[in-house]
Design a protein that fits this description.
This protein is α+β, with helices and mostly antiparallel strands and 172 residues long. It has four helices and twelve strands, in the order αβββαββαββββββαβ.
């Protein structure tokens, strides 16, 4: 009985601890603030496309996480860029929309955002401190925090879109 009285408050204390953040905010990056070409076009259902350079994406705020990457043999990599939710908000797309994602290599897939409401997906511009380029998954790579969330790989592995160049809002 005495052990139970000690154990219950301890378990409650552990259960009430806030969950560790899946990402960290990072300081502005001089490499990402340089002028450059458009790297991403986001088109809301209205049809009025919004274009972003790396500098414009970085200005939305940078975050970073380190996570296993299914596109890279589940090796752990660090990714840095703005949150997808920030990019979509800047383009006028609802947080529960369905997106059509398009890559430079003509790969495309659809992604429903509703199940990802609280998941910090990163529009990565850097990996391991290096700028992403066409030759190394960039210049934009959609990445998911597999280290912090249980996301069904049969659904979300296909949404790790490297060389991402276009996002279109789809009507439901």
């Amino acid at each position: 009985m005495n052990a139970t009285r000690t154990l219950i408050p301890l378990l409650l204390l552990v259960a009430c601890q806030p969950r560790q953040s899946a990402f960290v905010s990072v300081a502005p990056d001089p490499q990402l603030s340089q002028a450059g070409p458009v790297v991403l076009t986001v088109t809301p259902a209205s049809g009025k496309a919004v274009t972003f350079t790396r500098a414009q994406l970085a200005a939305l705020g940078l975050v970073s996480f380190t996570t296993p990457d299914p596109s890279r043999k589940n090796e752990v990599h660090e990714y840095t860029g703005p949150l997808l939710s920030s990019v979509l908000k800047a383009a006028g797309i609802a947080p529960d929309a369905t997106l059509h994602l398009k890559a430079h290599d003509r790969y495309s897939t659809d992604l429903k955002l509703a199940p990802l409401k609280d998941v910090p997906v990163i529009v990565a511009l850097k990996s391991g401190g290096q700028l992403l380029e066409l030759r190394n998954y960039g210049p934009v790579y959609l990445t998911f925090p597999y280290h912090a969330y249980k996301l069904d790989p049969t659904i979300y592995n296909a949404a790790w879109v490297w060389q991402l160049m276009g996002v279109e809002e789809r009507p439901d």
